[in-house]
Amino acid sequence: MKPLRTASLCALLVSTVAGTALAQPTQTGPNSPGPAPARLADGHPDLQGLWIKSAGGFQGLFIGSLDGTNFAAAGRGGARGAPPAPQYEYTPEAAAARQDRQRRGYEDPEARCHLPGVPRSLDQPGGLYPVQIIQDENYVALLHEAMHDVRIIPTDNSRHPHNYWAWDGDSRGRWEGDTFVVDVANFNGRTWLDMAGNFVDDNEHVVERYTLLDRDTILYQATVTDPTVFVKPIEMRFTLKRVPPEQQILEYSCLEGERSLQHYTSEDGGTKSRAK
Amino acid sequence: MSVTYLSFRRLAALLTATAVFAGAWLSVEAATPFLPARLKEDGKTPDFRGLWQARGTAYVNIEGHSAENGVRASASIIVDPPDGKIPYKADALARRQENYRARMTSDPSRKCYQAGVPRATYLSTPLQILQSPGNFAIVYQDNHAFRVFHPNNRPHFDSADWWMGDTRYHWDGDVLVADVAALTDELWFDAAGNFHSTEVHVVERYRMTGADTIEYEATVDDPLVYSRPWTLRTVLERVKQRGARIIEDECLEDANGVRRHVSPFDRANLLKSDYSRWKTGASAEPASR
Predict the structure, then answer these.
(1) Structural domain contains residue B289
(2) Cα–Cα distance between B65 and B57 in angstroms, integer?
(3) What's the structural domain count of chain B?
(4) A104/B259 Cβ within 8 A
(5) How confident is the model at residue A28 (pLDDT cuts 50, 70, 90)?
(6) What are A109-168's pLDDT values in tens digits?
(7) Could you give the ipTM of this predicted complex?
(8) Spans of all domains in chain A
């Protein structure tokens, strides 16, 4: 347990530093902040509404390229100002397991309709699946269209449970100033971080930070630590944009007979040949 | 206890007062509905938030049923028609009987499909109502299904067939009335094969009858399957277990290709027929939390 705790602490420090850096004017420019965020009666920023991941992040770029090229990782393509792809540094044992997963893309748990885990639940293909946020003084609830994945995150200072191992782990939230910070633990260690076989085990620990940059933009940051898989924390960030009010969340169901496996290239263990 | 006591008092009143007086008194009683608490944010929307669960065994069969497979017998929750039976057309009834005989394999819930409406309401697992001014959603523990209730200022999606349907709602005083359409015909109402077609239309009424009870009513109409609309009614009770939450409910395909619910409390259960878990991690001692 000790290494895990130390790593978590490191993750917290790292994310705090990252948060400070992002508060600098680098976020302004062409996308200058709009109206100030609304607040609930309890004084906290109002995160409610329907949101969708904007361009950026790595999952969307990966899936968006039909030949399986990860544009984000290659440092090209994507929207202007797209955040850098996360850097994965595996422990020696985990590196082999990752390579194995890369060859067996068809084993992706999400392709088998399982819950995506965190942060993959937020890091769905950009612009495809929105998330509805409902909030009160006791919780912030994320209702994801993709996989009809739900997280009802309490903000009551309660602690993670014992003897509980879940795809999405267990989330406990708190407000640090105007940022909603979520500590996620109790993972079952079955989820992948993306379609490319990047994975975690049950020592995964995530600290997420949701910050309203303006009324229509949430900056999402996640720090993933997993000392048995990664030698250093994984940093991830992208923005969520408010969906116009005339649109609504739709139903997503993932059932047996799921056909997305056929779109996996042979390199990823699928049947589709890779485009030249 | 107090209910029994009140009943005695009422009986005594009936015996001692004139019939006219007793009748007037009873109608006054019935005309005083429970006043639900209000959302703090706007001070007016009835507060339905919380963790709720239906008791009883309607999830097995919404019609009256005898005991079977460890499930106790129960009266029908169908209040209209008065005989408690779904008014099937003749050919539809035949199909229900066929479904019933094949229920151990054909029940869509066995494949971990989302339960649909109204079935999700009276399952043996809890649901949570999320609410804030202008927002109303229900999260069902079963298969992590959820419904976002939309204000009824727009028409239903007419070409969708969804597991949880398309829900439009309005407030009728303190009663939430939801109109549900766009449901798929692969759904059952229970584990006994009661069914509908894609033409089904459900009107739900959620009414707080006490601080810890919601009376739930659903009127079901489907001209292809039933000779007339019918109505079921049940009660959702507040789950008061301290610290109770919706837990994650996932399905896993076992070695025989059968999908089944797995428990987040049973670590070993999660490991069966499992490629995606890293074996090195799996053999390690559970982290003490």
Answers:
(1) no
(2) 9
(3) 3
(4) no
(5) very low
(6) 888 888 999 999 998 877 789 999 999 999 999 999 999 999 999 999 999 999 999 999
(7) 0.85
(8) 2-18+40-244
- Chain centre to alpha carbon of residue A205: 13
**DSSP letters spanning A60-75:** HHHHHSTT---HHHHT
A204 with A216: CB under 8 angstroms? no
In a domain, B45, yes or no: no
Interface test with A, best of B277, B279, B283, B285 (most A CBs within 10 A): B277
Q: Which amino acid is at B263?
A: S
In whole angstroms, give the CA distance from residue A184 to residue B211.
33
Nearest by Cα to A154 from B189, B128, B48, B66: B128
Residues B231 and B262 in one domain: no
Q: Which of B51, B218, B42, B41 is nearest to B125 (CA)?
A: B51
Rounded to two decimals, the pTM is 0.82
* Interchain proximity B137–A228, CB inside 8 Å: no
Measured on CA atoms in the order B235, A149, A109, B267, is the torsion positive or negative? negative
One domain, residues B28 and B91: no
| Dist CA A107 CA A118 (whole Å) | 18
Instruction: State whether B23 and B88 are in the same domain.
Output: no
Q: Does B223 touch chain A (CB under 8 A)?
A: no
Residues B264, B230 share a domain: no
CA dihedral sign, ordered B81, B86, B89, B93: negative
